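User: I'm putting together notes for a lab meeting next week and I want to include a structural view of one of the chains we've been expressing. I don't have a solved structure, so I'd like a prediction I can at least talk through. The sequence is below, exactly as it appears in our construct file.
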Amino acid sequence: MVKIKKIRQEGLRIEAKMETPHRTLIRAGDNSLRLDMTEMLGGTDKGLMPLEAVLAAYAGSLNVVGNFVAKTMDFDLGGWEFTIWAEFDPRGIWGLKRVARPILVVHVDARVATAEPERRLAELRKKMAERDPLHNLLKSAGVKFQEKWTRVAPKSSGQKTRKK
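Assistant: Thanks for the context. Below is the predicted structure for the 164-residue chain, given as structure tokens.
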């Protein structure tokens, strides 16, 4: 059984500063990152584009929430890799049309290193979808998901086995 430590909710806070018209420096506590556009779109390509950062945050959230859920399920997770891409309608940015849902579909290709059966992987994914705040934020914005979760053989060295 996993014990959950109660923590005080302090909220989320970042500070952002324009470096160029296309590049922004973001700080959160002692950490920072830069968002930028590609040179083709007027930027300097010194950071992720903002919508790429949304997908990156989703991948990070899948990893953190997924590991927590796997631990609570006693799920044998040897690791995973995600490829995530989105179908995006850029007409709103360019002022060509009002676009209510610029991100139409998020595609997730997950490769999960586990010896667990498909049924347990499906259970893990269902619980992750229920608990992941970024998944639910995108879903509530009307984004559709196309997902492919594939089990791959875990590496044998140092692999823990699940208690039966």
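A couple of points you could mention at the meeting. The longest helix spans residues 50-73. Residues 66 and 125 are 8 Å apart (CA to CA).

User: Perfect, that's what I needed.
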